[in-house]
Amino acid sequence: MRLLIQRVTQASVTVDNKIKSTIKQGLLIFVGIINEDTKDDIEYLVKKALNLRIFDDEYGVMNKSVIEIAGEVLVVSQFTLHASTKKGNRPSYIRAAKPEISIPLYEEFCNSLSEQLNKDIQTGEFGADMKVNLINDGPVTILIDSKNREL
Prior knowledge:
The protein is α/β, with parallel strands linked by helices. It has one domain (about 1-145): D-tyrosyl-tRNA(Tyr) deacylase (D-tyrosyl-trna(Tyr) Deacylase, Chain: A). Helices cover about 20% and strands about 35% of the residues. It has two helices and eight strands, in the order E-E-E-H-E-E-E-H-E-E. Strands 1, 2, 3, 6, 7 and 8 form a six-stranded mixed beta sheet that branches. The chain has a two-stranded antiparallel ribbon with strand order 4-5. Strand 6, helix 2 (about 100-115) and strand 7 form a beta-alpha-beta unit. The protein is globular and about 45 Å long.
């Protein structure tokens, strides 16, 4: 499972020209899922994402987590995070899990985030053509891969 996390001052998702979700200061998290992902990957990534110290403290040092700033979270499914660009110029998405695997894992990831954050999170619409609008704060963008924990 891969997360692309962006620290934002605001973000929103639009589906069919209607705003589905919006947040103010917090995290915009793109999630990519593969067939081999499990609850262990979810637990690892939820803990990592919520405890990343990427928000400024009173001295302007990135020393606080989204929990500590009472920030919001918006989660968007994105199978293209597992694109393979090894051959040719057309990315292959063969590693991305099919909906029957990825939807339950995506939902479990979102539920676990909400439970650990102790408040509702916002989401995109799985499988939809979404327009994501964001203001990346910093910019701060972090990639975390549960299968490569050295990233």
